[in-house]
Amino acid sequence: MRELEALWHDAVRALGGDHGPGDLADRYAEPHRGYHNADHVLAVVRDVTALAADRTGGERAVLVLAALAHDVVYDGRPGEDERRSAEWARARLAGLPQADRVAELVLATTDHVSDDRLARLLLDADLAVLGSAPEDYERYRRAVRAEYAHVTDEAWRVGRGAVLRSLLDRDPLYATAGARARWEARARHNLAAELSSLGDPP
Prior knowledge:
InterPro entries: HD_domain, HD_phosphohydro. This protein is mainly α.
């Protein structure tokens, strides 16, 4: 958890601020989080930093803060979680000129579609796990299922199948060239394999 806070402090300092992370680490340690936890956020920070290698230092700092904040509220309520996460970021960064920009990027994760060049980097990094090695993808799948342990197997099969199909229908899946080169082919393979495992071949 100290790594989360260190990344926050480094990014804020890069923007000329001294705003602390507040309860950032505590939120990502909440027991109901199977996948949307500190490990996920650290991976998003790593991947968005790699994708943004050619951006300015200020842009990278904004992206890191948005990555750190994007799942800070996770109660399993799509749309509401992202809105409250954006509000949290705006409040934590109050007075920093880039506070609204960070909040805008967090809000972009609501429907994962954006024409904003920085938002696209964040959205692609958030989906990088889809293009991971098979064993890592399986851990991701199990972790997400654990977050929906209250859902029956049949309801999960239907709901998860719809999500997988919506992702496979996106062409391309990733918005940026860097992400497509890194993850597109493997992500499509992983998604199709999981869909088939649900008895619903693509």
